[in-house]
Amino acid sequence: MSEWLLAHEPQLRLGVFLGLFAVLALAQWRWPLRGVEGAPARFSRHLLIAALGTLLVRLAAPVAAVAAGALAWQHGVGLLPALDAPIWLAIPLSILLLDLAIYWQHRVFHHVPLLWRLHRMHHADTAFEVSTAIRFHPLEILLSMWIKVAVVLLLGAPAVAVLLFEILLNATALFSHADLRLPEALDRRLRWLLVTPDMHRVHHSVQRHETNSNYGFCLSIWDRLFGSYRERPRAEQREMPIGLEYFREEADTRVPALLVQPFR
């Protein structure tokens, strides 16, 4: 099974992404909480930004995270091989620890000014919907890949665990950014395990103390464990201002402006 997953990695990741993106785009059109204007143009811009980030990673990253996992596990590099962890234990542990690493990376990117310059392109979006999940500056995408490769090598995470984590992370990021109107009871139950749209929307509030909360992408446990969980925003979810207090003009949403935003 693991060999099949690794052999079909690009098709599998792209297929899951496109399928879930389409499903959530349709769902947020049918059951929106806030509503999205100009969705086709937004999707086009954000997909182009994501494609540029993917291209930059292909050109500038000598090895991807999944390949790093294959090398680490094969040659006994990292914590899990050193502990002689069996594969059945190494896979869930790797997924859990990689998600923890992503939580702390996200938190650090909010508090280190130079890193915030890269990350703020994601937060400058004045709407909150499924394509916001892929709106990251290409330089941040590249830096995130380098960090992920380092964590994979440190852990000695097996390649199949890294691939499963990548798919899970992409899927939950799309879900947590979707403009969905979930029943309150369902949201309350889901967020004990996963980051829901209502939980993550708080993180995209224009209020700084709310932006600096709810950092999780996949599992919600890290925000509760490390004291960054905020149950709800001060304003009502439908009315709360989204984005930053700057970069709010229409010209700021164009692809060239987004690419130079960290240097402004």
List keywords for this structure.
264 residues; mainly alpha; 14 helices
Decide which structural class fits the backbone. Answer: mainly alpha
Shape: globular
Q: Look at the structure and give the mean pLDDT.
A: 93
Distinct helical segment count: 14
Level of helix content? 55-70%
SSE succession: HHHHHHHHHHHHHH
Q: How many structural domains?
A: 1
Approximate strand percentage: under 5%
Descriptive notes:
With 264 residues, the chain is mainly α. It has one domain (2-263). It is 63% helix and 0% strand. It has 14 helices and no strands. The chain has helices at 2-7, 9-30, 39-60, 65-75, 79-82, 87-111, 113-123, 138-155, 159-177, 184-190, 197-203, 208-211, 221-225, 255-260. It starts with a helix and ends with a helix. The mean pLDDT is 93.
How do the helices and strands line up, and which of them pair or pack?
Layout: H1 2-7, H2 9-30, H3 39-60, H4 65-75, H5 79-82, H6 87-111, H7 113-123, H8 138-155, H9 159-177, H10 184-190, H11 197-203, H12 208-211, H13 221-225, H14 255-260
Write a short abstract of this structure:
Helix content is 63%, strand content 0%. It has helices spanning 2-7, 9-30, 39-60, 65-75, 79-82, 87-111, 113-123, 138-155, 159-177, 184-190, 197-203, 208-211, 221-225, 255-260.
